[in-house]
Specification:
The structure is a single chain. This protein has 15 helices and seven strands. Strand 1, helix 3 and strand 2 form a beta-alpha-beta unit. The protein has a seven-stranded mixed β-sheet with strand order 3-2-1-4-5-7-6, sandwiched between helices. Helix 8 crosses helix 9, helix 8 crosses helix 12 and helix 9 packs across helix 10. It has two domains: about 200 residues, Rossmann fold; about 80 residues, DNA polymerase, domain 1 (Orthogonal Bundle). It has about 325 residues and is of the alpha/beta class. The structure holds S-adenosylmethionine. The site of S-adenosylmethionine has 22 residues, from helix 3, strand 2 and helix 13. The site of S-adenosylmethionine (SAM) has 22 residues, from helix 3, strand 2 and helix 13. It is found in: Cytoplasm. GO terms for molecular function: rRNA (cytosine-N4-)-methyltransferase activity. This is Ribosomal RNA small subunit methyltransferase H.
């Protein structure tokens, strides 16, 4: 596999993803949805391992669509590639003629090219316009959030989506600076964040801009709202025996995934019923105990896997 094919993105926990999905893909014509197609790394491996699988790949980034379409060309007869936001999953499945699926994969967040192409403005390590849109046809950019949100709302974004304890100080500093001149570059924002937090904290815990950049990216792309719609939609679409695998890269995504799967894997009846009713039995069971992490070998090969957390579940009942 050349780097041009992979786009420099190494699929995370690939062996485990394949192992977890495999038992659901033994039928004559299984359907898998990859809700974060990206460069098509996981998708290509699924298609190669399962000659009967039809794969529906979704991504909101036109670059990802173009790249994965070329990469998956050998499998074109059994792939449907759709540029969409994952929250549109139900419609995408209906339009594809496959409303019922056997497998679903979520490999959340950004891809390596999105991070590495400086001008996309995701990274504090490059100086670039404050953009951070996965889909550049969308209007809202990180610069809009930074320059137009009321300080209270900006602080909320930094706190809720970045778990930034100095959110209010950063928002105040940003508001003061933008009154003089709009903040349009990643470097200027990263410098402001560094200046806004206490000197003692600056020396610990990596780049102080990390949490602010994560928060802005989640806000700009409404990432948690998309997951909150897409993951339940994928569970609803799974046939009995169907499986979902979710790879998340920060605690907010993982927490949401854990909550959605926990709600589906527990009994729904009132406590204390002498005989549990069939209608109250869980429709899903966990396939992972807690969240699984990449091992040291994988981290040595792919440092970007470091924050990955994998959870998976299987549909065990209809209804
Ligand atoms: C980590 S990458 C996926 C990499 C892929 N599994 C591979 O092996 O090449 C995540 C991809 O999901 C896309 N993405 C993130 N959130 C999305 C959403 N809500 N809807 C559609 N695509 C989304 C991003 O544009 C990015 O291409």
């Amino acid at each position: 596999m050349t780097d041009q094919n992979t786009g420099g993105h190494v699929p995370v926990l690939l062996g485990r993803v394949l192992e977890l999905l495999a038992p659901a893909l033994t039928g004559p014509s299984p359907v898998v949805v990859d809700a974060n197609l990206g460069l098509g790394g996981h998708a290509e491996a699924i298609l190669a391992a399962h000659p009967n699988v039809h794969l529906i790949g979704i991504d909101r980034d036109p670059f990802a669509i173009e790249h994965s379409t070329a990469r998956l060309a050998p499998y074109a007869a059994r792939t449907t590639i759709v540029r969409a936001v994952s929250s549109e999953l139900e419609e995408v499945l209906a339009d594809s003629g496959h409303p019922v699926i056997d497998g679903a994969l979520f490999d959340l967040g950004v891809s390596s090219p999105q991070l590495d192409e400086a001008d996309r403005g995701f990274a504090y390590s490059y100086d670039a316009p404050l953009d951070m849109r996965m889909d550049r046809d969308q209007e809202l950019t990180a610069a809009d959030v930074v320059n137009t949100y009321a300080p209270r709302d900006l602080a909320r974004v930094l706190r809720d989506f970045g778990e930034e304890r100095f959110a209010a100080r950063i928002a105040e500093r940003v508001a003061k600076e933008r009154a003089i001149e709009p903040i349009t570059s990643t470097k200027r924002l990263a410098d402001l964040v560094r200046e806004a937090i206490p000197a003692a904290t600056r020396r610990t815990g990596g780049n102080p801009a990390k949490r602010t950049f994560q928060a802005l990216r989640i806000e700009v792309n409404a990432e948690l709202a998309a997951l909150d719609a897409a993951l339940p939609a994928s569970l609803d679409a799974l046939a009995v025996g169907g499986r979902v695998v979710v790879l998340s890269y920060h605690s907010l995504e993982d927490r949401l995934t854990k909550q959605v799967l926990a709600a589906r894997t527990r009994e729904t009846g009132p406590p204390g019923l002498p005989v549990p009713l069939e209608a109250h039995q869980p429709r899903f069971r966990h396939l992972t105990r807690g969240a699984e992490l990449p091992d040291d070998d994988e981290l040595a090969r792919n440092p970007r896997a470091a924050s990955a957390r994998l959870r998976a579940a299987e549909r065990i009942r209809q209804g």
